[in-house]
Amino acid sequence: MDLPEFPFPLRPYGPDANWSYENGVLTGWAGARQDRFVPPAGESLEPASDAPRLLGAPEGDFQLIARVTVGFAAAFDAGVLYLHVGEREWAKLCLELSPDKPTICTVVTRGHSDDANSFVVDGDSAWLRISRTGKAFAFHASTDGERWTFVRIFALGTEEQAGAALVGFLAQSPVGEGCVATFDRIEYRPGWPEGLRDGS
């Protein structure tokens, strides 16, 4: 799928989300109990559960920004900006019903997933941003698309893996019957943010 905001193509991974793009709005549908999460307390190394993703391969430092709106119907329904460097090395920046209030949440998976809540959002929309410089990635979120709240910074994979990372969008409904997520105000920028913690 070619979106005008991106200098590279996006392609679907995982279950079919019937991704569509019209008038600047990308829409994806997660099916019942679709998620991408490896429980940290689990002793088993069963394959990670799966959810629909639409991903592409950026070059160099970048920022991916989108306003995410979620049709919340069940706990943990979410619209997600997603980052993938390996089969068991990936990360999610989510607007998620966690479990009863819309919340900015993050997951970083290195074999098993961690799970951390950041702040509660008033309403069903928020702006999310993933950035990369070298092998470092940063997550930010915003309620207005102007002032950004730092959520976390982390390294993922080797430098070579990080440089070949896939980035894009995901929809999930881990315990529900399905969820629709829309992404608009999509913007792709080359370069790293000027400051991580100053709101820029």
TrEMBL record:
InterPro entries registered for this protein in UniProt: ConA-like_dom_sf (IPR013320), DUF1349 (IPR009784)
SUPFAM superfamilies from the UniProt entry: Concanavalin A-like lectins/glucanases
Listed name of the protein: DUF1349 domain-containing protein
